[in-house]
Amino acid sequence: MRRIVVIIMCLVAVVPAAAQREVDLEIRTTYANLIPIAVVPFSALDGAKADQATTLEQLVSKDLEFSGVFKITRGRISKAGNGDEDGLVEVRGVLKARGSKTQFEGFVVDASNNLTIGGKRYEIGPGQLRNIAHHFADEVVRMLTGEEGIASTKILYRRTTGKKWELVMSDYDGYNPRVLLRQTVPVLQPRWIDRSKGLVYTNFRGGNADLYLRYLKDPSSKVLLSHRGLNFSVDWSSRRNELLVTLSKDGNPEIYIVNKSGKIKRRLTHNRAIDCSPSWSPSGREVLFTSDRSGSPQVYVMESNGSNVRRLTYFGNYNESPAWSPKGDKIVLVSRIGGFFQLCTIRPDGTGFRPITRESVDHEDPRWAPNGRHVIYTEKRGGEKVISIIDINTGGKRILSQGDTPDWSIR
Description:
The protein is mainly beta. Helices cover about 10% and strands about 45% of the residues. The strands form seven sheets. Strands 2, 3, 4, 5, 6 and 7 form a six-stranded mixed beta sheet that branches. Strands 1-30-29-28-27 form a five-stranded antiparallel beta sheet, with no helix packed on it. The chain has a four-stranded antiparallel beta sheet with strand order 10-9-8-31, with no helix packed on it. β17 and β18 form a beta hairpin.
């Protein structure tokens, strides 16, 4: 039976997976065409704690390295007087005690003339070290590249713990996990909506695959869609403030546009095949989706009113789960290559096919980071599902945690 059909059927009859053990952090980075910067050891003054300054420095360094645009060295750049330091920068930090408060000042400095390019000042409250380090790292990325960083973003995913199903939110590096929902019936495919202030997910609480909505400020969820059959496979458009949803209420899975109140605005597909896994273009004018209407799962694109449907993928006999990059220049998808599901990218016109994973394990559920450079996804290792991040340019990789079907918040 084709995998796309198996996935749909699993939504109807899901069995809890065995408890999964924690996965150690793993980072592999290839240095090529990176911007060299030096991170000077952060100092602690006026009675501030030296270990906190060291922790801040280490966190900022890791964030900058994983951004994929810098090559990090430690210590001040040597002033040899031969101009080698021209164009190079140092990242510096000072932690100070101010009465009952602790203050952190971070700077980006031109190494050739010791002039400050930019800086930020923070007051550190209890438990805020990691957040401040992430925020300052994002500021460094912005100052030196003009692009917003991703260290302050959040990850949303599902995991199973014993006989419990959980929805979890964590920092982008997997730390500070917060369980948003825990129950004994299956919960599937969480997705951010409404500028990452809320999430939607499929829940079997009432015995049907219903779609639920939960805002982070609220203590509980509410039913968004409860049509007969399947209510699942969602993507949110910030441009349109609308959802793409897969519903089987009319007999087989079709794609619809729904507002955040649960009102169906338009049915987009009309086909006897399975149509699912929709993804908005950044402009909200086009929609990607998976369909087996050609005899095997392939990726298609159509206008947002359902017109002008055309097939996008012709390589191989199995391509699914497309996601449009935030910049609109790339599409990531899952393709079966050599017996394993690999992540690949293509251009919106279907050209430029390129695998970005090659290991002999299955890679699934790709979603973009807001910088359009990193992709988060599920991979299967030793019978377990873990969540990983890959830099599509450098190949740098981070394994976050047990879990699956992750999604990345906006900045």
